[in-house]
Amino acid sequence: MTRVSTGRDKFAQRSLGGLHRTIKQSKCLMVGAGGIGCELLKNLVLTGFGEIHIVDLDTIDLSNLNRQFLFGRQHIKKSKALVAKETASKFNPKVKLTAHHANIKDPNFNVEWFRSFKIVFNALDNLDARRHVNKMCLAADVPLVESGTTGFNGQVQVISRTVTECYDCTTKPVPKSFPVCTIRSTPSQPIHCIVWAKSYLFNELFGASEDEAPEFDHSEDTENAQEIKNLRQEAQELKRIRETLGQSEFARNIFEKVFSKDIIRLTDMKDMWKTRKPPTPLSFESMSSGSQTSLGSTPSDQKVWTSEENFLVFCDSLDRLSKRALDLRSAEEGALLSFDKDDEDTLDFVAASANLRSQIFGIDCQSKFDIKQMAGNIIPAIATTNAITAGLCVMQAFKVLKQQISDARMVFLSMSGDRGLTTEPLRTPNPSCQVCGVARLDFECDTSRTQLGEFIDGVLQGVFEYSPSISLLHEKLIYDEDYDDNLDVSFQSLGITDGSFLTVIDESDDDQSRRVNLIVQFKDRPQGDSEMSFVTPTRFEIPVKPAQPPSLDSLVLSGKDSSRNNGIHANSEVEQSRKRKADDSLDSNQEPSKKVKAAEEIIVIDDGYIEID
Amino acid sequence: MSVPGAPTAKEKKYDRQLRLWGAGGQEALETAHILLINATAAGTETLKNLVLPGIGRFTIVDNAAVTDEDLGTNFFLDDNSIGLSRAQKTCELLCELNPEVQGHFINDTIENILKSAPEKLKDFTIVIATGDIPTATLLSLDSILYPLGIPIFAVRCVGFTMTCRLALSEHPIVETHPASTVDLRLFNPFPELAALVDEKASSMDDKEKMTTHEHGHLPYVLILLQALQEWRSTHDNNPPSNYSQKNEFKSLLRSKMWNADEENFEEAIAAVLPHFNVPSIPSDTKAIFQDEKCTNLTKESTSFWIVARAIKDFTEKNDGLLPLPGALPDMKAESKDYIRLQNTYKAKARADLAVVVGIVKDLLVGLGRGSGEIAESEVETFCKHAGYIKLIRGRSLNAEYEQSPRAQVISSDLSDPTSLIHYYLGLRAYEAFISDEGNTQRTAPGAEDPIVDTDAGKLNKHVTELLDKLSITHSPELLEGTEKAIGEIVRAGGGELHNIASLTGGIVAQEVIKVITKQYITMNNTVVFDGISSRSQVYQL
Q: What is the β-pairing status of strands A421-425 and B102-106?
């Protein structure tokens, strides 16, 4: 059998030389088994990586099958990680594959676990998990190959602690959000009506309450206090209608509430409509007396529906959803429905409601196909881009494993016929990066016994001679000079356990001596009957912070945002969305101004930014 | 009641790609029949990337039996395949990827097919040639396929290196998917736009007639048009024509600001350089208008040429202006003003389209064809892209190798040791090595360990012969880069590396999709990739 294996590996050995042996002995981690993940796993298996761990939380959907070739129809709804492992293992029986159908943020995937890998590959589709793996790889000092694709564009980047910039060294696009008033009172674009239908109307009727929706930006609520109060009342009224779910008048009640009564209230606010056309309420009476009473033929999802079609789809989808909600509730008290772009009932309801609202405000209606893209944050995806990107990931991994990170490159892939690939040398770490421009301390203690105050006195001030001007963060602020409530609280009670991180920020005024952030990583070790509940660390020098103000955004490492982001960044769009946020205010003293996009040209590539086609 | 607008399972499966090439592109894919010559790793990966998005059919021609080495690089073969037909086994596994795609295989060499049944080749939409195919075979294929307008992708993937050569004859592209199709008509506003400027912006400098708020929310397009009127009145009715005049114009705009923070004026200033261009028909569009196929329509003319001709006639009657695409960029403005401005542009675009549609009908009737043969939607797509259309007339392999080689392209890059032209030359030498009449087994250079250096020497000799034939002067110094590339190529011993084969499959399939859908601009005509530096370059050879 030796002869057979030599045959199998012949060409890899030829081209890779000594590196081939290193690869066979390497244990690697692949986070994400989606579009890039399937290609990457195939590449890793055939290149002969000795051991591969696969982590993915997701299950397989029909719309994955146009590119995620390790999956077939028979695998729909099954775990991506497990099926990927199963399919890929057939093609190189010598590779050891381990699949985890789990969230990479689970606590058992701690720094020590990350440290067991020679290299980590990110094949993810969202910003939050990317930042998490970046942070873990920095903590474990394991090189990371980061990648992402959107349509024909792709990107590969090698991240190595202290050698290259990390994922968070550059600002990433923030998820798109809209001021509440723009969505609820003064929409001017189709997307505003779609967000209204999906995150307000649908949730108020069938799901969790609106306030939780990430699309809502509450930063300007105080400026618009009166209108916010009115809107809250409106939502309350809608909640009362929700109680009548299942009754025959349900559709009429909702329709008259949101498309008639609420609109009339808005038109009564004369100041708001001095310079623009007031909205036109719709009448259930007149719409239901149209020529059709039910949908005979199926309107296409590619074309824009007529007003009548919207009305009929609204009633019909509401009926379907009501029945489902009742069935669910009979099985489980308080069960909720949630919007899913691939759930036809929810998508029909959102499409029809959004279009009816657009009609009221004189905004262009959209086809269901386009609404699906905008409501579902759909990212175009194809096999070819993933194949090219995954191939480049492995090339970069070769450089990492050869200890030639200086030869590794940042590679960009674009669809243009004359350029294709562009490469750039990897950048050095951004000295003011809040994620990698830090000092690190491994701290061993009994988290159930050690109190925050002991740590501040005994370690931060005692060993590292911090001044009293410090603040401590663990997901949120847990201590600063003006907030000392937690001094007598144990770490465990603060949610800090084995593998947790704590960030120490030097808040002293002196630019010359202010130190970089210290990341404390906890090891929970019961210290027996010893008087001390922790092991006092040895002092080391913490470097002084470069003279640049820190960006608070990037401090929250395990942020709450669950935005999808496929790793392609456009910084100008970040600025634009901020500009828009500032512009889209509804100020009662001044006419609201708008920054408007040409409706038909909007493509929501992901939560992070909007691209003009 | 049936669920309204419910997409079919197929539409759901293809949802993510329909957003890139639409239903029209998908239909083109689903009627395509692809021929793959040799089920190499790169070839099979290419097919994988075409089977997944749902091409209609494929056929694999290959007479090889599966070896151990294949298993190490080709994902679509497993232990049970050893010794069996490579064409058959890869075909079977590829078909598993997508039940909608029909796969066929022919367990034979392409040389035999060229000899016995060359007419079979006419059935294919596109031919992808991979593996160790000798030059003579490639040129015979080209002689048959190029005149038929069937594109050939000649792909070579060795170790860390690959080249893909596309022999494409006439290939018109309407939907090039430009970043933007905005045409603001700043230098020649149509009457409705001019009227809107008068109404909204004529009191731009009058603090009596306009509030600060209104002034700060004038759409920048109207600001520019109003300021242009003023400029023209003092410049013989000419707009700013050169860089210094444009800067002068920017100062004029700045002087009209009432506050330092008027964002709309900043937008106007930023728009001066990109949007102040004398309207002209872009060179690609002009070349199409002047093409003999456009000026002399026949009964057989395709709809591309008829619509192109209609638009040409339109521009001649329209002061040399193309039909207005109608798109408007984002800008600071009151919603109602923005929507009105947008509607003004849209209405003009619709009016222009109606005229073009009329001309198309007349042309069709004049050619003795039905006036409804070309759908209005097709004309509309064309009008929106009129300034961005592209016609690629590629080059045959015979032109590159024999009839009119482009020595200049090679020689101009030769002195740059980092140029990828050295890999091109190295792989041409590789091809010469396997095409050598003495090499009956088509053994790859470097395949046998002991003779690596000898083979490298042979490849270097093939390069100098090629350069001599092309009358390109060379020296050992100039060829240092080539020698290095040859070292890499020979080291691979003719073998593929899976991740490079996979990447090749991605690049080639992407270009195949562009050609089949007639969307996006395809590379023309040779892409060279080097994995070690992760770079690619495109040459017109």
A: unpaired
Contact A400, A163 (CB under 8 A): no
Give the separation between CA A32 and CA A54, rounded to whole angstroms. 7
Q: Which of B393, B409, B427 is the C-terminal boundary of a domain?
A: B393
The amino acid at B185: R
Which of A9, A46, A423 lies nearest to residue B534, judging by beta carbons? A423
The CATH number for A182's domain is: 1.10.10.520
Token pair recorded at residue B387: 């300034």
Residue A193 sits in the same domain as residue A283: yes
Between positions 295 and 334 of B, the ones with CB within 8 A of A are 327-334
Least confident of A2-6, A152-156, A177-181, A389-393: A2-6
Domain of A601, in residue numbers: 178-378+572-612
Q: Which residues of B touch A386 (CB under 8 A)?
A: 506
| B100-138 per-residue burial string, b: 16 or more CB within 10 A, e: under 16 | ebebebbbebbeebbeeeeeebeebbbbbbbbbbbbebb
Give the ipTM: 0.90
Does B261 reach chain A within 8 Å, measured CB to CB? Answer: no
Cα–Cα distance between B284 and B390 in angstroms, integer? 6
Name the domain count of chain B. 4
The DSSP secondary-structure symbol of B245 reads H
pLDDT band per the 50, 70, 90 thresholds, residue A607: very low
Chain B residues 207-246 with CB within 8 Å of chain A: 213, 216-217
Which of A137, A181, A365, A433 is catalytic? The answer is A181
Where a domain ends, among B208, B242, B275? Answer: B275
Tally Cβ neighbours within 10 Å of residue B435: 17
Known active-site residue A38: no
Cα–Cα nearest to B297, from B357, B354, B364, B375: B364
Q: In this predicted model, what pLDDT tens digit does every residue of B123-161 receive, in sequence order? A: 999 999 999 999 999 999 999 999 999 999 999 999 999
The answer to whether residues B225 and B244 belong to one domain is yes
Chain B touched by A291 (CB under 8 Å): no
- What is the number of domains present in chain A? 3
Task: Say if A15 is an interface residue toward chain B (CB within 8 Å).
Answer: yes
